[in-house]
Design brief:
There is one protein chain. The protein has helices at residues 6-16, 29-33, 60-78, 89-94, 99-102, 130-138, 140-147, 153-171, 174-177, 183-194, 200-207, 214-227, 231-234; strands spanning 24-28, 48-54, 82-88, 110-111, 235-238. A 5-stranded mixed β-sheet has the order 4-1-2-3-5. The chain contains 13 helices and 5 strands. The chain is globular and about 50 Å long. Helices cover 50% and strands 10% of the residues. The two termini are 19 Å apart. Strand 2, helix 3 (60-78) and strand 3 form a beta-alpha-beta unit. It is α+β, with helices and mostly antiparallel strands.
């Protein structure tokens, strides 16, 4: 998919989900932020990331089926890999500082839950404690560091550093900028100095960064924290079909 096709993609998503009830759907990630990656050919190489918010656990199986059908058409039409995550409404509301929340494009493709535009700016239930925001915004750093232990270290280490720089810029953290080559040490120092209670995903990584299963352990914790579901229940990933 070419960069100039992104507005058309969002228009098609709005049409695709226009008649959907029982969920609210928005884009998140690099395409939503407008900082997606392109390859040497000029085509977009970033995934399309969507978040589908549901009210009840019982809604998840039906939503997964609907998302699978609709995103198959989108993936094939635009020749792009799509990653959809399903989030339970209580977790969505609690995770106001989560990376996927602050990366969301401020427009619903459908808003069956009636969350409205306020959902894009609400920082969560804990906005009065900056240490909570710091703990949430720290989360992507160990996530990508853990992911780098099993998949594409170059790309995921670069993502960890970018996440660390976003954290440093947001909170003016010179110690993070100065220690990008040893991010576990930088995070431990930050937690100690600021009195932060880290999220479970961060704590799991920092306790055992070389554990052979650390990538899966951190990933599972991140999904439960942000989506209220395991990664297996939350994620729907589709690749473009191979042409006949």
């Amino acid at each position: 998919m070419r960069p100039e096709d992104v507005p058309l993609l969002f228009q098609e998503l709005a049409r695709e989900f226009a008649d959907v009830t029982g969920m609210s759907v928005a884009a998140t990630g690099s395409l939503a932020r407008g900082d997606h990656r392109t390859g040497a050919s000029g085509d977009i190489v970033s995934n399309l990331d969507l978040v589908h918010v549901v009210a009840e656990d019982a809604d998840v199986p039906e939503v997964r089926a609907v998302v699978g059908r609709k995103m198959r058409r989108i993936s094939d039409t635009f020749r792009i890999e799509t990653t959809s995550v399903i989030a339970r409404l209580p977790a969505f509301r609690q995770a106001g500082h989560a990376h996927y929340r602050i990366s969301m494009r401020p427009e619903w493709f459908c808003d069956g839950l009636g969350l409205g535009s306020d959902a894009f700016s609400c920082p969560g239930h804990d906005e009065d404690d900056p240490r909570t925001a710091l703990a949430w915004m720290m989360q992507p750093v160990p996530y990508y560091l853990a992911k780098a232990t099993v998949l594409d270290p170059t790309t995921n280490l670069a993502k960890a550093r970018r996440a660390a720089m976003r954290l440093a810029d947001r909170f003016d953290l010179a110690q993070i900028r100065d220690d990008l080559d040893n991010l576990p040490r930088a995070l431990r120092t930050l937690i100690a100095e600021r009195g932060v209670t880290p999220l479970e995903s961060t704590a799991r990584y920092l306790d055992a960064p070389t554990h052979p299963a650390i990538a899966q352990l951190v990933r599972d914790a991140v999904f439960v924290e942000g989506m209220g579901l395991s990664s297996a229940d939350s994620m729907v990933i589709l690749l473009p079909s191979v042409p006949n």
